[in-house]
């Protein structure tokens, strides 16, 4: 036997959570980009001839996601969940190097925060849109 579908949450319950997850994902997205920029410009032992190539390689995925994250598009947030895993892996690798340990742990923290908040934002946006479409169809 199949289970009965659960009723979607109320709009009053969803809206504050949507807003909080959106701001949290935006803040962690910008903080992750700033961390990568500050680390590579100030602390990383990267030769000056390769600095811009390294920055472009590390920041390009974030720059591709930036318009959608800033605009609050749920599909971009779901793509960010995939992309941010690369930064999580980089953070784990850096956390085991004593000279990059702080950078690694900060990158892990920011990538996990971005992953969680973007995932919840995507889920709750889908529920919010489903509630809106149910209300529109019931009015007809």
Account of the 3D structure:
- This protein is mainly α and 140 residues long.
- It has one domain.
- Helix content is 82%, strand content 0%.
- The two termini are 32 Å apart.
- The relative contact order is 0.15.
- The mean pLDDT is 89.
Uncertain regions: pLDDT < 50 for 5+ in a row? none
The main β sheet shows up as: none
Q: Assembly type of the shown chains?
A: single chain
Q: Name the average pLDDT.
A: 89
Specify Rg, calculated over alpha carbons.
Answer: 19 Å
Q: What proportion of the residues form beta strands (DSSP E)?
A: under 5%
| Helix amount | over 70%
Q: Helical region count? A: 4
What structural category arises from helix and sheet content?
Answer: mainly alpha
- How many discrete structural domains? 1
Q: What best-fitting shape do the alpha-carbon axes yield?
A: elongated
Number of strands: 0
- Terminal Cα span: 32 Å
What is the string of SSEs from the N terminus onward? HHHH
Descriptive labels:
single chain, 140 residues, mainly alpha
Briefly summarize what is shown.
82% of the residues lie in helices and 0% in strands. It is mostly helical and 140 residues long.
């Amino acid at each position: 036997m199949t289970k009965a579908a659960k009723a979607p949450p109320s709009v009053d319950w969803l809206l504050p959570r949507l807003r909080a997850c959106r701001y949290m994902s935006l803040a962690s997205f910008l903080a992750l980009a700033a961390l990568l920029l500050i680390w590579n410009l100030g602390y990383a032992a990267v030769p000056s001839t390769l600095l811009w190539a390294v920055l472009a390689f590390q920041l390009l995925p974030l720059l591709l996601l930036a318009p959608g994250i800033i605009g609050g598009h749920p599909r971009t947030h779901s793509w960010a969940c995939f992309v941010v895993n690369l930064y999580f892996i980089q953070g784990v690798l850096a956390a085991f190097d004593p000279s990059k340990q702080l950078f690694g742990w900060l990158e892990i923290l920011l990538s996990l925060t971005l992953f969680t908040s973007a995932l919840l934002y995507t889920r709750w946006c889908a529920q919010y849109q489903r509630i809106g479409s149910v209300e529109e169809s019931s009015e007809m």
